[in-house]
Each structure stands twice: as C-alpha cells, then as structure tokens.
Design brief:
The complex is a heterodimer of chains A (about 280) and B (about 260). Chain A is an alpha/beta fold. Chain A is built from nine helices and 14 strands. In chain A, the strands form four sheets. In chain A, strands 4-1-5-14-6 form a five-stranded mixed sheet, sandwiched between helices. Chain A has a five-stranded mixed sheet with strand order 10-9-11-8-12, with helices on both faces. Chain B has a single domain, classed as Orthogonal Bundle (MetI-like fold). Chain B is about 80% helix and about 0% strand. In chain B, helix 4 crosses helix 5 and helix 8 packs antiparallel against helix 9. Chain B is flat.
Chain lengths: ~280, ~260
C-alpha cells in the first residue's frame, strides 16, 4: 500500500472518530435524565446510582426484548421507584443463583427478580413490603390429560428452577412422596423446554410467570388444578440497609396509591403479548 | 518396584530434583483439612457434597471410556484409505472441536435426544445422566481422536512397510507394531484430557445431573453459604484431579517400563 493511500485511510478514520465524538455527548445526555427531587413523602436518595440485579429469564417479570434491552414488570417498577426516590437504577442481568449472594456481599445494592419473601431469605437479606402476590401453579403441556392437579403428581417427574421457592415446594412434595422425581434447571426456560420435549411431566412455577410462558408458547402449555401456595414478592436490599428499604417502601406505597402498580399489572400481565 | 541404584546405597536427592510444588500443595491441603475438620459448617457441607463426588467420578469414567472408543474409531477413520471414512471422521472432529462443550451438551439434551426418544420410543434417551455421558464422550472423543492420530503418525512409516514386507496384514501391523508404540506416546496428552474431562463434567450440572457442581448449587440454594460451599467444591475437584494426574504418572511409568 502506498504511503499516500494509507494517509487517506488515516484521514477517513479521523473523520469517523470525529463523527463518533460528535455523537457521544448527545447519547450521554440522553442516558442521564436531569436529577429531579424526590416525590413528596418519599425519602430523597440524592440521585445516586443503584446497582440492581435481576435474572432476565423470567417473563413477564424480567426478560430481554429484540434489542436486548431489559424489560418487564420488575424493570418498570424499579424505574418508577427510582423516579419517586430520586435514584438512578443501573440494572444488570445476573444468574439466579448469584443474585442473593451478590446482594449479601455488596456487589449489588438491590435485587428485583420476582423474589418471594421467605423466612430463610429474610435471615440473609432485607425485603421491602410485598409489591405483588402470586401463587404457585402446575404447568403442563396443552395435550396433557393425566394430570388434573397436585394429587396426580405422585408418579410424575416435575421440573423447577434450582433454588427457587418452587424448588422448595417440589422438594418438600417429593419428600412426602407426592412427586416421583424433581429435576432442577438453571433457568425456567430450560425447565419449560424440558416440559415441551416431554422429558418431564410438569413444571411448578409462579402463576404469573407461568402465564408468561403460556403466552410465549401459544397452544402448547396450560395450567391445571388449584394454586399450590400464596406468596408475596419483595425487593431485596442488603441486610441492615434501612435507608434504601424505607425509601423503597415509601415509594411503593405512593405507587400503590396513585394507581401505578395497577397500571403496571395491566400492562404486563394482561396487555403484554410476546412477539 | 525398587528404583535406585542396584547396590541399595541411599543416594541424596539433589535439591533441584525435590518436587517442591508437591510439598507446597501437600502443606496447603493439610492446612485446608485442619480448617475444615474443626468447622461444623464445612463438615455439613462436605457431607452434602459426598454424593456429588461419586456421581462426578462415575460420570467422568463413563464418558472417558466412551471418548476412548469414539476417539480411536475416529482416528483410525481419519487415517484410513477410504475417502468417505476420512471425510466423515474429519467432519466430526472439526465440528465437535469447534463447538463449546456446554453448547454441545445443551444441544444433545434439548434437541437431539428428545427427538431420538420420540422417534425410537426408547426411554433412556430421556435420562439426563445418559445425555451427559453422551455429550462429554462425544465432545472429548474429538480431542482424543487427534491425540491418537498424532501418536499413530509419530511412528515412522518405514516400520509399517517393514511389517508388511514381513507378511503381516495392515491390521496386524497396526495391532502389533504401531499401536503398542503409539500408546506410550499418547499417554501423557490422554491423561491431560482425562483431568480436563473430570473438571468439564461440571457442565452436566446445567442438565440437572446431580454431580459435584450441581450438589454445590443445591447446597447454596439450601443454605445461602456460597463462600463455604464453593471452597469445598473447589477443594474436592482439586483432590480428584491431583489423584488423577498422579494415577496418569504411574501409568506412564508402567508403560515405559513394560515395553
């Protein structure tokens, strides 16, 4: 390559860099909304950045859209909370088993990932007040006729996600000989894939997440029987971080009162349809 | 098995021949063992993980056995005179070596074997242990095929030609001349792959095989003690791989001595 031609290439490269530099500030200002003071009655977190962990394999609570953006009920909720409490959520998708240990160690400030409030978890981390109530259901293939409810699982294989309250329930049912075998997968995606592949007979899952998977696989899945449990989901903060927890609780109450929680519920559990 | 001078006199080992790394490691392991023995948490954790160790060992041995067979067949096919065999074997090696083992495992567990199960109606295609052995065995078979091939190609062609001219068939030449020498050449890299497979067997945890890593995951989910659990898991893997490489060394020595 001649020296002159390579000089031309350097010129082009320089122009591209200039163009990029021209874009950068604009992109930057777009990402940071002007800090606005906290809403009335909600403690002000001073516009600080919060590291938020979620496991984006749990529609419609949290998932990725086609552009790989995090979307879902929990994602909207934490943004609304931060709008009221004046903070900036920096949301990261993390493997489920790393979420609670990550908060415990201080890698993340907050975890919002459809997390059920349980006494065991409360010993390790702190929860906000519940923001939604769910129940566990039995998810089966649409053509399933043998399983009508929990009473039919004694000779069946059930899949769950490892380390969830669904896992706890299934493990207990297996101990009490109400389930033959429990297979625990890293994500519910894989558990549902195993169900659709006929590897397992049923999946035990939270009702709304079950609805999410039914919507993603039209005509291939259904739920059967009564709800197995009632449980409340909360947002997790590090143990002893009362400042964050109190601010979140105040924001949650405000969002409940002004109807935002209802609006989000309708948006994600009634209107949202996967592509 | 006495090694050393025939006259039995003790010869001082030169300082640079002392296996210092092994002494350091032994010290660390003793330290860890002392820490662990005194702790209730670790004792409970290790008890919980014990079953996983057994499954990991069985999984490793079974998949390595499969890989040895698959690898030998693929290596012989790659060296065969038939263009079809050669192409098929090369395709297998290149494709499987080029795909991450985890992806291969997921592919076998969620695409191929469910289809096979539906197609043939054979129940054990749905067994996740079978799938793990299949995935790990096929995955490592590709590596071992290359190891075998390197070993066979290291034997000078002249030896085969000499064997043929002495009236041996090609199979006889392979069996009595090439393979005995090749085995000695391939033992070290093969031992290497065995230890690597032992660690990679942890990938089976994604398809819910209750091996050591999965048992660790279960324990973390149960107790929230991630730090202690993964310490114990790492230690157990280390003990197994150290035993494995020690075993490989013994084998190498036997092969060298046995001729």
């Amino acid at each position: 390559m001649s020296r002159r031609r390579s000089a031309a290439w350097w010129g082009v490269l320089g122009l591209m860099l200039l163009a990029l530099a021209g874009c950068a500030p604009r992109a930057g200002t777009q990402a940071t909304p002007a800090a606005s003071p906290a809403a009335a009655g909600v403690p002000d977190l001073g516009g600080r950045t919060l590291r938020v962990a979620t496991d984006a394999t749990y529609p419609p609570f949290e998932m990725l859209d086609e552009q790989k953006n995090l979307i879902g009920y929990d994602i909207d909720l934490i943004r609304e909370i931060c709008r009221l409490a004046n903070c900036r959520p920096e949301i990261r998708s993390v493997a489920w088993e790393g979420i609670l240990p990550g908060v415990q160690q201080g890698d993340y400030d907050v975890a919002i990932s459809g997390i059920t409030i349980t006494p065991e978890r409360e010993q390790r981390v702190d929860f906000t007040e519940p923001y939604i109530e769910v129940g566990q259901v039995i998810l089966v293939r649409a053509d399933e006729t043998r399983i009508q409810g929990a009473q039919d699982l004694a000779d069946k294989t059930v899949a769950v996600q490892l380390g969830t309250t669904n896992d706890e329930l299934a493990t207990r049912m297996q101990r009490e000989r109400q389930i033959r075998e429990v297979r625990r997968y890293r994500t519910f995606d894989l558990a549902v894939a195993a169900l659709l592949n006929r590897d397992v007979d049923a999946v035990i899952i939270d009702s709304v997440a079950g609805q999410g998977f039914i919507a993603q696989n039209p005509g291939r899945l259904k739920t059967v029987g009564e709800r197995l449990t009632r449980e409340q989901l909360g947002i997790v903060v590090r143990e002893g971080n009362t400042e964050l927890r109190d601010a979140f609780n105040a924001a949650l109450r405000a969002l409940k009162q002004d109807g935002t929680l209802d609006r989000l519920y309708r948006k994600w559990f009634e209107e949202w349809k996967p592509k | 098995m006495a090694r050393g001078p025939a006259n039995g006199r003790a010869v001082p080992v030169p300082l640079d021949r002392v296996p210092w790394w092994a002494l350091v490691l032994a010290g660390l392991l003793l330290l860890a063992a002392a820490r662990l023995a005194g702790s209730e948490v670790y004792r409970e954790t290790l008890q919980f993980l014990a079953g996983g160790v057994v499954v990991t060992l069985l999984l490793t041995v079974a998949s390595f056995g499969l890989a040895l067979v698959v690898g030998l067949v693929a290596a012989l096919a790659r060296l065969s005179r038939s263009a079809v065999l050669r192409s098929v074997a090369t395709l297998y090696v290149e494709v499987v070596r080029g795909v991450p083992l985890l992806v291969l495992l997921l592919y076998i567990a969620f695409v191929i074997t469910p289809w096979l199960a539906d197609f043939t109606g054979v129940r054990w295609w749905r067994d996740n242990v079978v799938r793990a052995v299949l995935g790990l065995g096929i995955g490592y078979g590709a590596y071992l095929a290359e190891v075998y091939r390197a070993g066979i190609e290291a034997i000078p062609r002249g030896q085969v030609e000499a064997a043929l001219s002495l009236g041996m068939s090609r199979t006889q030449a392979l069996r009595y001349v090439v393979l005995p020498q090749a085995v000695r050449i391939v033992l070290p890299p093969m031992g290497n792959d065995f230890v690597a497979l032992l660690k990679d067997s942890s990938l089976a945890s994604v398809i819910s095989v209750t091996e050591l890593t999965y048992s660790g995951n279960l324990n973390v989910a149960r107790t929230f003690r991630a730090f202690e659990t993964y310490n114990a898991v790492a230690l157990l893997y280390l003990c197994m791989t150290l035993l494995g490489s020690a075993g490989v060394r013994v084998l190498e020595r036997l092969a060298r001595a046995g001729g």
